[in-house]
Amino acid sequence: MTVLASTIKFLQQPTAIAWVEQAIANLDTILLDHSHCERKAAGVALNLIFRYPSNTKLVRTLTTIAQEELEHFERVNQWLDRRNIALAPLSPPPYGAGLKAQIRRHEPDRLLDSLLVSSLIEARSHERLGLLARHCPEPELAQFYRGLMASEARHYGIYWTLATTYFDRATVTQRLGELATVESELLSTVHPEPRIHS
Ligand SMILES: [Fe+2]
Ligand SMILES: [Fe+2]
Prior knowledge:
By secondary structure, this protein is mostly helical. It has one domain (26-186): Ferritin. Helix content is 70%, strand content 0%. The chain is built from seven helices and no strands. The protein has helices spanning 17-24, 27-51, 56-82, 95-100, 109-135, 139-166, 169-186. Helix 2 runs antiparallel to helix 3 and helix 3 (56-82) packs antiparallel against helix 6 (139-166). The two termini are 19 Å apart. Bound molecules: fe (ii) ion (2 copies). One fe (ii) ion is lined by residues 38, 41, 69, 72, 151-152.
């Protein structure tokens, strides 16, 4: 295994080959963690709808995303069923908390950072599901990842577009650069536990 996906727009560093090797060697754990990721992605979209109930464009767009993430959740859970993997808890890698810590507390910064952190997580998910699709030795599972990867690509664009709806382009670009640096740093060493964002 030598070739990794080209860098996704927004991501400062591509995923290391060490992550691909770790994930392919632990596909059951990756599937279980993936289930947790889809549930959390739906929750994040819903939380933003609750926090900004009067931002019409945000509410309407994230309603669709929450529905899609819940559908992904169900589809991953069907894979867990097929492989007899119980829906067990799994300790999260430091990635999510590390990014969440970057979200400033006061508005409107909080909205901007929340949208951009989600955009980066979706971009990384898109990249990594693509790597799983390419390297997974089980054709049917690889096909499943290929299908999901397209949705996550749309999602990162949608969060970015929402950011530019409420903030000017220069502000969004500058903050995205700062957060993308942190995002890549958080993944600079592969977490010992196999996870989607290890
Ligand atoms: Fe998803
Ligand atoms: Fe997504």
